[in-house]
Amino acid sequence: MTRPSDEQRRQMLVDMVSARTQSRRMWNLQRQGQIGTMAPIDGHEAAIVGAVHTLDPSCDWVLPQYREPVALYRYGPEILEHVMLYNIGHPSGGHIPAPIRVLPHQISLATQIPHAVGLAWGLTLQDDPGVVLVFFGDGSSSEGDFYEAGNLAGVLGAPVIFLCVNNQWAISTPTHLQTAAESFAAKAAAFGFPGVQVDGNDVDAVFDAVHTARERALAGQGPTLIEATVYRLGPHTTADDPTRYVPVEDLEAARQRDPIARLRAELEASGLWDDTVHADVEAAAIADIDAAFEKAKSTPLEPDAMLDHCYSQDTQRLARQRAGMLSGLGDQDAGGRIS
Amino acid sequence: MTELNMLEAINECLHAEMARDDRVVVLGEDVARTGGVFRATDGLFEKFGENRIFDMPLAEGAIAGASVGLAIAGLVPVAEMQFLGFAYQAMHQIAGQVARLRYRTQSRFDPAITIRAPFGGGVRTPELHSDSLEGQLANVAGLKIVVPATAADAKGLLASSIRDPDPVVFLEPLRGYRGIRGEVPDGEHLVPLGSARTARPGTDAVVIAWSHQVELACRASDRLSEEGLSIRVLDLRSLVPLDLVAIAEAVDSCGRVVVTEESPQTGGFGGEVVATVVEESFWSLEAPVVRVSGFDVPYPVGMVEDSYVPDEDRIAAAVRRVLEVA
């Protein structure tokens, strides 16, 4: 087993606490009407942070679904800025600048999985040493894209890590209504590569599993499917009411397995963490996200920005629409000869 | 100049573009070892090898989805849908992902993806091999839709499509693969996207068409010329970008307009062309515009398909109707 160092574990807890703190801050901003729908991270922190800490940001790519970006500090502070730009609804929210090897998060579930395979394949074709880590959930594993991408990755032997964060719920649909398979990891058998299950509340176990998968990928041994089992401790998103379907006793039991409490207790026992450190990390996280929020709000927005970046150059039609919009005359400018 | 059919012109272009730019990779079902079910990709595997052209598992969504990843990696994928009707199984990737990659990343990545697909009727195929989806695809912002009608344009427009930094759906008429032949410029030949072509000159009326319907419209024009009628044929060449100026110029010159297409009438791209005619050239119109199209049913089976796909008789009849208006 590959264990993270003490310093890595301390840094992982910093990232986990920061992510939860910032996610909760975003929840409040959404409730104040200042940002759009968001998906709280509570309960997913170890699965995300443990995985990302095995990667080399200079060569490895991350393709998130929608719950992960707030926990991708390892890829730089720009990620948080773009989380906030995205959540206030700015068109630049999806522009994570080069050379950061993170794609904007994906809303149409599982569509990012074939992208990950194509990207990993493209790296191989160009002798680029990186691997691709793609996040998705238990619900996404029912989509055709998961099967098509898994099959393709197996055929190609592409350097890609499929990380299925099984949080037990696809909005309100429990896992037994999602699959009759023994596990989500078991589905890898159909693709011809290994599938492993880890306790997603155990950051060391996640780190080890993803580290092993990365080593395999770098050695040319192909993909791995990892199922990290967690429990979604909050609602699906700000638009969800889990009291309609989550059994109270299940949620209470899951809270006893909280990934942050678990790692914090271990680090405190080793003298690597205490209440003061914890409070400092939370305060810094709040300061960072508030700064990112203010920066996002002050990011310029041209009146016709929504017409940019559809094509490399406006088509004749789009150019006329832009002219019409800017002139205030209506949907079309006078290219159409109305009189 | 060399006389080629459309298939040979496409094949020549693929050879040339792969030789010109080693970022160009070809992927699709049966494209490598057998050279494609129509042989459009014949010889590429032998010439460029297994790191440039790939026989893919039978999954259209993965072909389109992997193309997104390849483009992000900096490659220039040329993907084949074996038949356009099968692209329904990739539509979530084509419309939801390929088309939006530039927009959602604000041009961090160039989605320089070309999706080639044969389409259109008249060759007695099984179900879902002949469907015309160009109208549906043209309604997806971010895609370019290219529809060549001649062998020379097949070469010149495909080269432009592959080199274009935006995603292009390049539609190849099944009936034209071997049925349309013509002189094709040797060496590099580029036809810009968004520039329509006058396939037949004329002043009495204009038939606006694309892809194989251009061939049929030209036959109708030739037949009507024997009756002393001068019928222009405008070949749009690409639906997105659409050459608004050429449409206006043709309508202003002729005053009477027929639009012909193979797809079902409701929601077909022909309606967009008619709307453009009305917006650009209402005051030049001397008669109501007439549409010729498939019918509002799924593409039918072989015994009846000749009654579905507009032919030169239906196009000629439509032209006579617009000429009847005093």
Mean pLDDT of chain B: 97
CATH topology title of the largest domain in chain A: Rossmann fold
> Major β-sheet of chain B, in short?
7 strands, mixed
Oligomer: heterodimer
Do you know the CATH architecture of the largest domain in chain B? 3-Layer(aba) Sandwich
| Helix fraction bin of chain B | 25-40%
- Computed Rg of chain B: 19 Å
Beta-strand content estimate of chain B? 15-25%
Distance between the termini of chain B: 45 Å
Q: What's the total count of β strands of chain B?
A: 14
Radius of gyration of chain A: 22 Å
Strand count of chain A: 7
Shape of chain B: globular
CATH homologous superfamily caption of the largest domain in chain A: Thiamin diphosphate (ThDP)-binding fold, Pyr/PP domains
Number of contiguous helices of chain A: 10
What is the rounded distance between the termini of chain A? 78 Å
What is the number of domains of chain A?
Answer: 2
Textual characterization of the structure:
The complex is a heterodimer of chains A (339) and B (326). By secondary structure, chain A is an alpha/beta fold. The N and C termini of chain A lie far apart (78 Å). Chain A is globular and about 65 Å long. The model of chain A has no long low-confidence stretch (mean pLDDT 96). Chain A has a five-stranded parallel β-sheet, with helices on both faces. In chain A, strands 4-5 form a two-stranded antiparallel ribbon. Chain A folds into two domains: 6-301, Thiamin diphosphate (ThDP)-binding fold, Pyr/PP domains (Rossmann fold), CATH 3.40.50.970; 305-339, no CATH class. In chain A, helix 6 (203-218) links the parallel strand 6 and strand 7. The longest helix of chain A has 26 residues, at 6-31. Helix content of chain A is 42%, strand content 9%. In chain A, helix 1 (6-31) crosses helix 2 (45-52) and helix 1 (6-31) crosses helix 9. By secondary structure, chain B is an alpha/beta fold. Chain B has two domains: 2-184, Thiamin diphosphate (ThDP)-binding fold, Pyr/PP domains (Rossmann fold, 3-Layer(aba) Sandwich); 197-324, Rossmann fold. Chain B is built from 13 helices and 14 strands. Chain B has helices at 6-20, 44-48, 60-72, 91-98, 101-104, 134-138, 151-163, 174-179, 212-225, 244-254, 269-281, 305-308, 312-324, and strands at residues 2-5, 24-28, 53-55, 76-80, 114-119, 144-146, 168-173, 181-184, 197-200, 205-209, 231-235, 238-240, 257-260, 290-292. Chain B has a seven-stranded mixed β-sheet with strand order 3-2-4-5-7-6-12, sandwiched between helices. In chain B, strand 13 (257-260), helix 11 (269-281) and strand 14 form a beta-alpha-beta unit. In chain B, helix 1 runs parallel beside helix 7 and helix 10 (244-254) crosses helix 11. Chain B is globular. The model of chain B has no long low-confidence stretch (mean pLDDT 97). Classes of the chains: A alpha/beta (339), B alpha/beta (326). Chains A and B meet through helix 4, helix 5 and helix 10 of A and helix 3, helix 4, helix 5 and helix 11 of B.
